[in-house]
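Tip: read the tokens left to right.
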């Protein structure tokens, strides 16, 4: 994919997102207006719900067309998720014991002088 193709694709994606947000804004403003008209004209009969429902279905389909289900419309989404999972597993692996790290501390030549104190040598200041 050339740089020009990438720019065209990015521009198209930004235009689609902008269109969705314009649609969302008009939905919120219009349904808010319908609500107040309904509230003032016939508060016992909530008819504004029906246009809100119908338009909401259209808005939801517009969202899915632009962003996909749960925002997964992006073509590279699967690749990015795979890379994230690989990085997460690599980080996790660094925290897990490797065969060399599994050795006891004493086998590596490290000494814990504090733990070697005899029980009679401990005093109240040793405990938190």
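Filled-in amino acids:
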């Amino acid at each position: 994919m050339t740089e020009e193709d990438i720019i065209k694709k990015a521009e198209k994606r930004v235009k689609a997102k902008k269109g969705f947000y314009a649609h969302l804004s008009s939905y919120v403003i219009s349904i808010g207006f319908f609500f107040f008209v309904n509230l003032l004209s016939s508060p016992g009969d909530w008819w504004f719900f029906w246009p809100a429902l119908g338009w909401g279905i259209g808005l939801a389909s517009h969202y899915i067309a632009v962003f996909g289900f749960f925002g997964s419309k992006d073509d590279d989404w699967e690749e990015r998720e795979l890379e994230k999972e690989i990085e997460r597993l690599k980080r996790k692996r660094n925290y897990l014991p490797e065969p060399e790290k599994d050795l006891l501390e004493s086998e590596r030549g490290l000494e814990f002088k504090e733990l070697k104190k005899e029980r009679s040598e401990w005093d109240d200041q040793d405990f938190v």
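Residues 3-73 form one domain. The mean pLDDT is 78.
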